[in-house]
Amino acid sequence: MNISNFLKHGNTDGLLLQPLWDDLRAQREFLTSPFLPACFAFLIHLLLCAPFLAFEALGCFWPRINLYRISRTAEPLLLCLQRWVGCCWRIFMKYLTTVLPATALYQRVRIPRFPELAPSCSLLIGEVIACLLLFDALFFIWHYSMHRVPWLYRRVHQTHHQNRITFALTAQDASPAELLSLQMLALSSAWVVGCHPLSEALFHLLNTWLAIEDHCGYDLPWAIHRLLPCFGGAPFHQAHHHIYRGNYAPYFRHWDWLFGTYLGVREEAGSKHGGRTMRRRRRKKSLGSDCVCAQDCMC
């Protein structure tokens, strides 16, 4: 680490992250492995889902945990494990047959960047927030399109909606085409923002966690939408899975408010720490009035 470089660029804040970045740069050959992104994404997804599997298991023996469930009751532990194992196997096969080859090819053709200096903490936070906002906008457009174009829904998005009642693993239980499209949106967001590699890595980690939390099926008091009301959280996204329309943005609420697709959900979970039902107030004359997504759609 060359401290004079920080003083020259006026980047003394970057001293906090520079040791970490120097260690990562020393592992450059490992980090540019063509198989690392897919393997890392799959393992991180499983790791971040693990606390919610523990919640599912504990709920079989400690009924108080079930008070935080959004829209389903507790089930026997064996049935719970069968659901998780089945979902995990489907995701693994899609990663093995589609995501791994595609990301390996991308790693081969991309030019890796390893700048000498780490970003400042303020730059890191700013770039991550910018990536999240841009990804949220791109996802809203893509998600809305998949629900409005019949062949897109059937061939790309319908697989994800086989889970009407979601749990953490289902965040990536989608068709291979949808998994690749979401990878492209995330990579494009980081590219447009012009992220430092460290900022991009943090964005991908946070993106994975937010998707898991959206699908976890629990309205927990420490969830991010409880701390930051601009996020929709699990109740927001569970409403989308329950009635197949509206709430198209993945994380934030503002795009659905602006385009009239916000479902106006009032959850018992919001007032009674996780009720089992969701009351819906449908907005008239909204973009969600001509849904073509499913036969049992409740639009």
UniProtKB/TrEMBL annotation:
Organism: Oncorhynchus kisutch
Domain Fatty acid hydroxylase: from-to ranges: 129-261
One cellular component (GO) term of this entry: membrane
Cell compartment(s), UniProt: Membrane
UniProt protein name: Cholesterol 25-hydroxylase-like protein
GO biological process, one term: lipid biosynthetic process
Keywords noted in UniProt: Membrane, Transmembrane, Transmembrane helix
Gene: LOC109872262
Any GO molecular function: iron ion binding
Classification via InterPro entries: Fatty_acid_hydroxylase, Sterol_Desaturase_Related
Sequence intervals crossing the membrane: 35-55, 117-145
Any Pfam family hit: FA_hydroxylase
